[in-house]
Amino acid sequence: MGDNINLKILLESQGLERCPFPIPTGWYFVDYSDTLKPTEMRNITLFGQEWVLFRTESGKPGMSDPYCPHLGAHMGHGGKVCGEHLRCPFHHWEYDTSGWCKNIPYGKVTPPIVKKQAILRTLPMVEKYGMMWAWYHPLCAEPTFELPYIPEIEDATGYTGSRRGSWTADTCIQEIAENGVDVAHLKFLHGAPGIPPVSATYEGPIMKLDIGQGYIVGTAYGPGLNVMRFNQHGITATMISYTQPITAEKSTMNMSFRHVDYAEGTPELHASKKVIDHMIGAAEGEESAGFESVDFIVWNNKKYRPNPLLCDGDGPVLQFRKWFKQFYSGADAETLAKI
Amino acid sequence: MTAVRVKDRDGSEQTLDAAETTPLMETLRDDGYGIEGTCGGAMSCGTCHVYVSEAWAAKLPPPSEDEKAMLEAISDFAEVRPTSRLSCQILPDIIYDGLEVEIAPQA
Ligand code: FES
Ligand code: FES
Ligand SMILES: [Fe+2]
């Protein structure tokens, strides 16, 4: 090579990381509501750390940092749900689902901070879609948006479908989500007949994607929820996707597939099931593979290029990244510079 | 060392030599004045409560919000006066040589 070679493009990969991102801010699926009964508790790993997930006697879910602010006992080992509180096994201090200390069973004088603020880190939670959701913010800020109404899963009469899937990838949530705008890979990795046109609009935490001029219409509500409607064969089938950042480098993608509750034996029902088969990648003789069979080999091995070499025909990857950056607003300058 | 005049809970008075860079609570605790200092100066226990003499109270830097909140919290259990301080928040700098404090009753 000559003297004027661009060494940056040749050598940049030496400094690349697989997942240079912090856990993004947003609402995330924790588990299905029916997996946690009143007064039950268990330890879970999410957002790169362990949490104690519990449900109070009245049915309120709580998710707390495991380590008691008093002397550091792990409340998920020997702790207990007492009424509306989580009780630490060590000295029986009790906390509500918002992290306020509600009882110190022996102290006469309450430490002032106990009256002033929550002293245990807990995550804001809501139950929706038959699921528990938690709001993650690295600096414990309150939620800045709400989860949407999704008729396909919240309207008890009009829709049906119990198919669900769960897949774990060794990468971060942004890398997974980026595939949504990377339309070129649909042809080459998935084997779609062509590169579908894509248009994306961004508004606050919401991104709307239209792939293939109405074929797939998707809405992302922050990094943790995506509702994609597939319009084909005269019907609409819906994929509700809710990915969890287990750690900074490991994500579990969860999906529910729903469709209109058509009568048994109708062509619409047949078409709905076929579209869903296709989404999952289970259909035989499809011209394009569903996501899970082919994306993993890329996700599990790639590195993130902050300065990718994009060409004419690529999707709006950079606009997507710019939109996604808002979910790292709690990150320090050094981290932000790498992404 | 800074001389600090201490009035004990039984009314007896002594002068002690307090290290300038050690919070007064620690000196009082280690010298057996019945100050527990349980929280180590985090202002969450209130067991280091003292009354500073009127003359000296004005000379000390004023209490922080956290110190005021702790004093307020113990007021249900012990008499808190305008000159009440948490001794864990008092650094007996040499400029306070001659400081006078009285150990407050236990909460
Ligand atoms: S460590 Fe939890 S109550 Fe003491
Ligand atoms: S040592 Fe606890 S308040 Fe001073
Ligand atoms: Fe893909």
CATH C-level class of the largest domain in chain A: Alpha Beta
Kindly report how far apart the N and C termini of chain B lie: 30 Å
Strand content of chain B: 15-25%
CATH level-1 class of chain B = Alpha Beta
Mean pLDDT of chain A: 94
Mean pLDDT of chain B: 96
Question: Architecture of the largest domain in chain A, according to CATH?
Answer: Alpha-Beta Complex
- SSE string of chain A: HEEEEEEEEHEEHEEHHEEEEEEEHHHH
Radius of gyration of chain A (CA) equals 23 Å
Number of strands of chain B: 5
Q: How large a portion of the residues of chain A is in β-strands, by DSSP E?
A: 25-35%
Per the principal axes of the C-alpha atoms, what is the gross shape of chain A? globular
Largest interface: A-B, 8 and 14 residues
Keywords (chain A): 2Fe-2S, Iron, Iron-sulfur, Metal-binding, Oxidoreductase
Domain Rieske (chain A): 27-134
Protein name (chain A): Rieske (2Fe-2S) protein
Cofactor (chain A): Fe cation
Features:
heterodimer, A: alpha+beta, Rieske Iron-sulfur Protein, Naphthalene 1,2-dioxygenase Alpha Subunit, Chain A, domain 1, nine-stranded antiparallel β-sheet, four-stranded antiparallel β-sheet, B: 107 residues, alpha+beta, Ubiquitin-like (UB roll), 5 strands, binds FE2/S2 (inorganic) cluster, binds fe (ii) ion
Describe it:
The complex is a heterodimer of chains A (339) and B (107). Chain A is α+β, with helices and mostly antiparallel strands and 339 residues long. Chain A folds into two domains: 111 residues, Rieske Iron-sulfur Protein, CATH 2.102.10.10; 188 residues, Alpha-Beta Complex (Naphthalene 1,2-dioxygenase Alpha Subunit, Chain A, domain 1), CATH 3.90.380. Chain A contains nine helices and 19 strands. In chain A, the strands form four sheets. In chain A, strands 11, 12, 13, 14, 15, 16, 17, 18 and 19 form a nine-stranded antiparallel β-sheet that branches. In chain A, strands 5-6-7-8 form a four-stranded antiparallel β-sheet, with no helix packed on it. Chain A is globular and about 75 Å long. The two termini of chain A are 30 Å apart. Chain B has 107 residues and is of the alpha+beta class. In chain B, 20% of the residues lie in helices and 22% in strands. Chain B is built from three helices and five strands; from the N terminus they run ββαβααββ. Chain B has a five-stranded mixed β-sheet with strand order 2-1-5-3-4. In chain B, a hairpin with a 5-residue loop joins β1 and β2. Chain B starts with a strand and ends with a strand. At the A-B interface, α2 of A face α3 of B. The complex binds FE2/S2 (inorganic) cluster (FES) (2 copies) and fe (ii) ion. Chain B: Pfam families: Fer2. Chain B: Its cofactor is [2Fe-2S] cluster. Chain B: This is 2Fe-2S iron-sulfur cluster binding domain-containing protein. Chain B: GO terms for molecular function: 2 iron, 2 sulfur cluster binding; electron transfer activity; metal ion binding. Chain B: Belongs to the adrenodoxin/putidaredoxin family.
